[in-house]
Amino acid sequence: MTWIPEAASNLAGKVDGVILVITLISIFFFVLITAVLIYFAVKYRRKRDDEETPYITGNEPLEIIWTVIPSILLILLFVYGFVVYKDMRTPPKDAVDITVTGKQWIWTFDYYNGKKSLNELYVKQNVPVRMIMRADDVLHSFFIPQFRVKQDILPGRYTQLWFTPTKVGTYDLYCAEYCGTGHSQMLGKVIVLSPEAYDIWEKGIGVDEGDAVASLPPEELGEKLYKEKGCNACHSLDGSVVIGPSFKGLFGKTGTLEDGSTYVADENYIIKSIYEPQAEIVQGFQPVMPSFKGILSEGEVDALIAYIKTLK
Amino acid sequence: MANESVATNVYVPYLEQKGFMSWLVTTDHKRIGIMYLISISLFFLIAGIIALLMRFELMTPMADFVSPHTYNVLFTLHGSLMVFFFIVPGLAASFGNFLIPLMIGAPDVAFPKLNLGSYYIYIAGTIIVLYALLQPADTGWTFYTPYSATTDTDVVMITFGVFVLGFSSILTGMNFIVTIHKMRAPGMTWHRLPLFIWASYATAVLQLLATPVVGITLLLLIAERSLGVGFFDPAKGGDPVLFQNFFWFYSHPAVYIMIIPAMGVISEIIPVFARKPIFGYKAIAYSSLGIAFISFLVWAHHMFTSGISEVAATIFSFLTFLVAIPTAIKVFNWLATLYKGSIELHSAMLYALGFVFLFTIGGLTGVFLGALAADIHLHDTYFVVAHMHYVMIGGTVMGFFGALHFWYPKWFGKMFNESVAKLSWFLVFVGFNITFFPQFFLGIQGMPRRYATYPEEFQSLMALSTYGSWILGLGVLIMTVNLIKGLFSDEKAPQNPYGSLSLEWQVPSPPPTLNFDKIPEVTDWTYGYGKKKEVDA
Ligand code: HEM
Ligand SMILES: [Cu+2]
Question: What is the pTM of this model?
Fold first, then answer.
């Protein structure tokens, strides 16, 4: 682990410059102050109880020196931080727009080319992108450490942010503004593709039934969807309760709903839970699950059911 | 106004009167100070235990000890109790009450009954919040809308409790301002005042001016939740960021309400144990006021990523850098006070020197957060958690512990075990650094705060932080036991064990009920240590 994450956007290096300069200046003052502190504490340690000390109440030149020098340094740091900030806030004209919607606890991305994805953001290497962002419910914050970008997203107002991804790879996307029970599970991935790979992605698999749906066995596709579509934010595989009921041993189980009636977790129950989650709430849980209608096709729900069946 | 003290020659310590009633109706500032001291210490310990539970949960990436919802409740409680019940009333209400009249040579504060009233208001707020624990909120101590307006936990009760507490703070602040203006002993000019008094004065001004804003903000939130008025809800034409503006307009100055009294304490302890006059008295005194003033103009530095305009962000970043200057000045002056001193490393002095060291780290890391580009990356990560704790524990809590050890003999007339005190200082100091220093790296790596679960790559540093919290907890435990045991010891404290020149040390320990037999005549400033040549007032 290096002390700062890999720099994977055009902005990252600039931000690191600011952080590095402040770090060096801080280390200088920290070492200076600590050294003086320890030196005085040792050198002037009381040896006899009747030691005489001089009556010094101040020193104006010193006072001026240690006011003026830090002031100048601080103002320079302010300027440096501001200059880089200005770049971070000024997207180039040719940036490509992607719309980001955050809701408890899922990221949705709508691309200029009409594609849509969930929790996985696909971007093309070396092409600047501008995120146009909005929240559906409460505050969230779009944070990619490797790109050094962060911006809160708000209900009822658009905020934006831009970057140019410079390295092919997969990076973490975090929600950085506290948004409730599933906050720490509101994770996504940013997938930076080379121009060639991006073209393939653009033509190929999306949320509509693409090649992948046909080509994978249903259990495996279900497992993939479980992670990609954000089920894992709230449903564990090990029996522990995160936000919703665990998937472990779920299929075929009976239980009680909020209204006191009982249910059997069969195929119909699961489909309904995915498409109309508010209709039946299991006792002891909050009605917080979003509907996946229009996000998961019926074929994909079938795959998820097949996967859940494997989780004994 | 308290009556002008009649010269009585019989010494009746203020602790003499026994019985529950004698405490319930007391208007003695020293006894009210004790009641605050006990209350805030209890909250510190409770919120500290909650913190240990949180750190225990965070030892592994999964939510295996408590559920995420429970974790969110815990950090809300930890933050709210620490901020509103411990650290904001904190030194100001406990040591401020005990020391202000003694230090300025007055028999009591200006409005003793109001002072007791403020304490009762504090207790009322406490009871409301304890009631709120029946269905504890999960919003964080910041209560950001729209989450706080929509979560189905009980936000109204806890915010109402905090609202009530605000009045206690306002009235105490007002009381102290009047006391410092009107009750100084003859000859106690402004430039002879102990620096703790200057610090208390700056704090009181902040309490008086800033607290009403948070009160109103919390009322608006309560109205939004219970009456459905849309101040902050965009669907009803409100503005979700408005809440943050209001909240930080109070809470940033509140940060200085928390730290300035501790700076005052440090300015008292260092000269006594270095046997040197404080270096740069006026620079320290006026920098307190300077900090208090600028602190009203920097609130949006908590909001650089919130969607405020770039122009606003730039102006607030600039003002934030300005507030760093008076803070740096204080650190340099404390250091210079040590020069050519005769330094005794008493436990109180160790806390004071620990303060200078840790607060320097807290202050320097604040520069990262004030610089726009760096803050974008670091905001809402563990870097902020670390910075905040370096300022609050490394600063305020060290000042609080230092004050406890320093004025203990005066306050209670007893002594604690000094070797045990040194040991607990060591554990607190080491444990604190192990707990919080790794969090700077976690934050730079991108670990967001308020996460009940976290990606595995962060585990080794998170676990290290948890081990540190055990050492820190042990240190606080030993310290608490040592201080409580001291109360029951037979060892009587001398009147002035450290040879301090400040007025509170010139009366017996514990002080008489009316503080001074005769209101003293002040002829010199408080810091006349060392071999004098010529004194200029
Ligand atoms: C006993 C030592 C302490 C430990 C181990 C500790 C630990 C923690 C932890 C683990 C968090 C949660 C961080 C997060 O998830 O974002 C936290 C938050 C916080 N702590 Fe402490 N803490 C301690 C003492 C203090 C003190 C003395 C204060 C202030 C007087 C304080 C004030 C806060 C505040 C304001 C928060 C933010 C709560 C929030 O995010 O809503 N803590 N602390
Ligand atoms: Cu979020």
Answer: 0.88
